[in-house]
Design goal:
The structure is a single chain. It is globular and about 40 Å long. The longest helix is centred in the middle third of the chain and has 10 residues, at 84-93. The protein is of the alpha+beta class. The protein has helices at 6-14, 84-93, 107-111; strands at 17-20, 29-32, 53-55, 63-66, 71-74, 78-82, 115-116, 123-124, 141-147, 155-159, 164-168, 173-175, 178-180.
Length: 187
């Protein structure tokens, strides 16, 4: 393992994790060494600039904890088109990392993964994020569990290419299952 700074070691020790070697321009990759706790209590009012994401090694590196929100994400979302009911069913049956209890995320949870790019102003996933296989082409949208307040027939989706989303009819989209956090939006 590459040499770590004292601050990084202190952070790692405080959260019961080890800090894996990572390029200086990316988030330091945290991974768990034992069963929790790996993080401070999440709070939506905090903004973590480093070590926000923890790859859960004891979940076969298949899941990532967002320490800012407390949501656990699949490390690799399902990137073949699914209609809404199939997407919800797929998350419900998922056993990512040997764990059940997955669900479609709320629109706010998906949007919380985005950060504004200081140059373009477009919201994107943070540089150095640990996720694999995220589709970021124009028109690539991910399902949420958030129903539109204007129409019961539409559901919010989020795009990681344009950093935005909106209510859409339940046609085929990608899905990214989540676990924990705030839960389903019953709007």
């Amino acid at each position: 393992m590459k040499e770590m700074t004292r601050k990084a070691k202190a952070i790692a020790a405080a959260f019961g994790v080890i800090l894996a070697a990572a390029p200086a321009t990316t988030f330091a990759q945290l991974s768990t060494t034992a069963n929790g706790p790996y993080y401070a209590t999440p709070s939506w009012d905090q903004k973590l600039t480093t070590n926000r994401f923890v790859i859960l090694a004891n979940w076969n590196n298949e899941a990532v904890l967002d320490r800012e929100t407390g949501v656990v994400w699949q490390r690799s979302p399902i990137t073949f088109d699914n209609d809404l009911s199939y997407a919800a069913w797929t998350c419900h049956l998922a056993s990512t990392g040997g764990r059940r209890g997955w669900r479609l995320p709320r629109a706010e949870e998906l949007a919380s993964l985005l950060e504004p790019d200081p140059i373009t102003g477009m919201a994107t996933l943070p540089a150095g994020h640990p996720f694999i296989g995220i589709h970021t082409n124009s028109g690539d949208f991910y399902w949420s569990a958030t129903r539109s307040a204007q129409s019961a027939n539409t559901v919010w989706v989020v795009s990681f290419s344009i950093g935005a989303g909106g209510p859409f009819l339940p046609y085929d989209r990608y899905l990214w299952c989540a676990r924990g956090g705030q839960g389903v939006d019953t709007q």
